[in-house]
Amino acid sequence: MTEEIKKVEYNDFLLDGVTYKTTLNKKFTNRKKYVRYDPKKVHAVIPGTVLKVNVRKGKKVEVGDNLVQFEAMKMQTYIQAHMDGKVKQVYVKKGQMISKGFLILELE
Q1: Is residue 103 part of a domain?
Q2: Residue 16 in this model has a pLDDT that exceeds 80
């Protein structure tokens, strides 16, 4: 009976400035990478269908202004501006279905 020896592949893993040699499982290597929060990017918190886009590129907005109205689970939801600014880009249009985390618009 012959036993097959698997070659183990080690990866360099940097943590707090120290490099470790380790094996990484598939779940870890395929994970969603961390992206730092950017307050100028407005994302959908739940999936739904866009009913109305109240802003366009270049429009100035103030805190509390309704940016986009969409329907999710038979309820109408409004996304409001959380900061003063100017709309840099709008990525949705009326009737479009959006998923959770979808980038709706960017502010300057």
Answers
A1: yes
A2: yes
